Amino acid sequence: MAFLRGIIGSWVPDTLAARLFLLSSCAAILGVVLAALFISSEYRNNAQARLNDILTANIFNLMGNVELGEDGKLMGLPNLGDSRYQLFDSGWYWSVERIGEPERRLASLSLADRAIVLTDGQQFDETFQRNFRMIDENGSVLQGLEAQVFLGEGNRLYSFKITANQSELDEEIFAFTQRIALILGLLAFSIIAATYLVVRLGLKPVTRATQKLTAVRNGDAEKIDGNYPDEIQPLIDETNALIESNVVIVERARTQVGNLAHSLKTPLAVMQNEIASLSPGKRNLFKEQTDTMRQQVQLYLDRARISARRSTSIANTPVFPVLEKLALVVAKLNRNTDMGFELEALQGVNFAGEEPDLQEVFGNLLENAAKYAETTMEIGSEYIDGRIIVTVEDDGPGMTPTQIQNAMKRGGRVDEGKTGWGLGLSIVRDIVEEYEGKFELDSSKLGGLRATVTLPGFKA
After folding, report:
1. Which of 144, 212, 273, 353 can bridge 224 by disulfide, Cβ–Cβ 3.0-4.6 Å?
2. How far apart are CA 272 and CA 65, in angstroms?
3. Within this chain, do residues 99 and 133 fall inside the same structural domain, yes or no?
4. 127 and 256: one domain?
5. First-to-last CA distance in the chain?
6. pLDDT average, residue stretch 201-229
7. How large a percentage of the chain has pLDDT more than 70?
């Protein structure tokens, strides 16, 4: 069963509309094909039975109109009411002959001086009749009936044979099958067209709900509005309730993070002021510990803030204007650095997150590149399959693998001669990881460092 489901799943589309349309169409086609086969088979059986009835009626008519004369010759001019028995080579023949004496016979005009030669016949039944098939000189298949009866007095046994052109019947059945196939084909097409319309109209509320949900995700709406059929309205209501609950939780988390930040900053500030009054040995120890505490507090506050932002389902930010503004600001602040940037690929692309996070990521990267660049820095961008890819490169001294590893740590420092707390790259890493993106550092073609960030996005 698993193997069969795997085969079916490989060719059945994933969309509900396509599945319904495909399965309904297949059922309609299968039903029409079976109906065509059944109707054709029934028509053939009825036509064949009708032909056999005609042969039976004609042979009895033949036997009633043929008799022996006084000289022992066969006499009679049977009129079977069918002109085909008078048309030469029509395949509609009859003959009467004495068994063992074929020269004593009567035959239809259509048969002329030829004989009906059996090539395939059944055994005689209790009424001394049997059906047979033969092929005439023209290659036509003939259906026939033979009866043996006694004529006159004594034991003179005569054979009555009559045939009908089976090929004509087959052609008639074929023509009927073509007509019924055309009619049922049109019926199948009508059913498939009706199915398409039913699926489109029936699933229109689902499509509308999906579009509304996309608008919520893109930040264009706060909930899924409108009325929907009873089958999906409960799902819409639960989704709206989930969105509202999510917003409440995010706001609560942001408030708690802000309260925690304020409650911790004051004690730390007091402790740092008191450090100055301590002896040099204790001063260094307490300063080191308070700096560690401040870094750890900042670390978890940033992570909490990022998580709170990331958990919202309605955040989105146009990427191009944010990056362009950051690049122009950094260029003005570093007029001695030649900056080139290619951001056109991000026109009309939105970041699936909040603007402060986007600014913090690329603000840190641009500031870091400008700080270490000798003469040149470059910004490149791509948008591939829902992923925003931005690279920032410089021609500075670059980093060794060990330095890259240290720089990615919280508070890691590579060059003590540069000012700053050394938190920039690790903050970038935390934000990117929270958005399930990717952050990499490696060597640049310019000779310095290249930072590559991949974030989720979508076309507006």
Report:
1. 212
2. 136
3. yes
4. no
5. 43
6. 79
7. 82
Same domain assignment for residues 243 and 391: no
Q: Indicate whether 425 and 455 sit together in one domain.
A: yes
In this structure, what CATH number is given to the domain that contains residue 364?
3.30.565.10
**Exposure of 47 by Cβ count < 10 A (0-12 exposed, 13-18 middle, 19+ buried)?**
middle
- Return the higher-pLDDT residue of 324 and 227: 324
Q: Are residues 330 and 299 in the same domain?
A: no
Report the C-alpha gap between 416 and 413 in whole angstroms.
7
Same domain, 283 and 323: no
Average pLDDT over residues 439-459: 90
Q: Give the lowest-confidence range in 236-240, 242-246, 325-329, 340-344.
A: 242-246
Structural domain including 279 reads: 233-310
Residue 324 to residues 191, 332, 355, 401, 439, Cα–Cα distance (Å): 55, 12, 13, 30, 20
How many domains does the chain contain in total?
3
223 domain-assigned:
no
Q: Which of 187-191, 278-282, 441-445 has the lowest mean pLDDT?
A: 278-282
Q: Each residue of 156-178: pLDDT tens digit? A: 788 899 999 998 888 999 999 99
CA distance linking residue 137 with residue 331, whole number of Å: 101
Is 213 among the domain residues?
no
Distance CA 184, CA 141 (A): 30
Only one residue has tokens 């931005």, namely: 390
Segment 32-68, tens digit of pLDDT: 899 989 999 999 999 999 999 999 999 998 888 888 8
Q: Quickly tell me which residue has 């940033």 as its tokens.
A: 302
